[in-house]
Amino acid sequence: METETATRWLTDAEQCAWRTYLDVTRLLTYQLERDLQPFGLTINDYEILVNLSESADLRMRMSDLASATLQSKSRLSHQITRMENAGLVRRENCESDRRGLFAVLTDHGMETMRKVAPHHVESVRQHFIDLLSPEALVDLRASLTPVAEHLRGRRGKV
Amino acid sequence: METETATRWLTDAEQCAWRTYLDVTRLLTYQLERDLQPFGLTINDYEILVNLSESADLRMRMSDLASATLQSKSRLSHQITRMENAGLVRRENCESDRRGLFAVLTDHGMETMRKVAPHHVESVRQHFIDLLSPEALVDLRASLTPVAEHLRGRRGKV
């Protein structure tokens, strides 16, 4: 007697869409990383610089930065150490805020960000944005927004 | 005198689409990893198991496996060592093929793959596929296929 729920394997069309999505994700990460390499940055480094440069006083609480970049605190901590050694950020304790270890963008970090941003945007255009029509971009956003919302909702739960 | 080419920053619509795509990529990786954790597998482990299980004789040359999973050979080597320690794969030298160090799926690896696959498919459905309409999946594939082709073409070049 079969008591398990039957697995709903992907149909061919679903499999094709999923496979294409996965391939683009991996290939694009690889390409964007390669374009950032001459600047000594990884994609994660760049994402940290973007987050800090857009924050008030160019600083963020480490726990907020971990949430914003979807990393575990321990992994972020290792990354911030590397970036600190490269002079891009520094850690700062906030005396008036007991929760507060902050990551702060340094002048060198801001300068690096300004220098790299045009190249990174060009890379994103060349390898993704400019390959999609404006209509396709609108559709992509419309399709993926509910997915992002669903996943964001899940992320809160343990 | 301005001699640099002006940076073509992303428009608001492009920025929104790009941001949504990036968020989904990260959140989805996080969620799929979390769903694989009870089985002691990472997404990369799972991908290796899929590749080997679909190969003739359940084995692949390490260099082919690195290409298929878009990893560097050194990173793949570390991963295969971990998976070897977990009894999922083994390395094998091919005496008649001088190029050949192979990764081979073990019985335990195949068994693990069979056990995990239904859960992973359910996870992919719940957090991605089932959130998109059939039309959206067709559009997604159509939009991303040229991107995948472009990036695959680039990947060969050094």
Walk me through the topology:
The structure is a homodimer of 158-residue chains.
Chain A: H1 12-36, H2 43-53, E1 59-61, H3 62-68, H4 73-85, E2 89-93, E3 101-105, H5 107-127, H6 134-156
Antiparallel strand pairs in A: 1-3, 2-3
Helix pairs in contact in A: 1-5
Describe the protein's architecture and organization.
2 copies of one chain form a homodimer. Chain A has helices spanning 12-36, 43-53, 62-68, 73-85, 107-127, 134-156; strands at residues 59-61, 89-93, 101-105. Chain A has a 3-stranded antiparallel sheet. Chain A contains 6 helices and 3 strands. Chain A is globular and about 55 Å long. In chain A, 63% of the residues lie in helices and 8% in strands. With 158 residues, chain A is mainly alpha-helical. Chain A has a domain at 38-114: Arc Repressor Mutant, subunit A, CATH 1.10.10.10. Chains A and B meet through helix 1, helix 5 and helix 6 of A and helix 1, helix 5 and helix 6 of B.
The most extensive interface between chains reads: A-B, 50 and 49 residues
Q: DSSP strand (E) fraction of chain A?
A: 5-15%
Characterize the overall form of chain A.
globular
The neighbouring-strand order within the major sheet of chain A is 1-3-2
The CATH H-level superfamily of the domain at 38-114 in chain A is: Winged helix-like DNA-binding domain superfamily/Winged helix DNA-binding domain
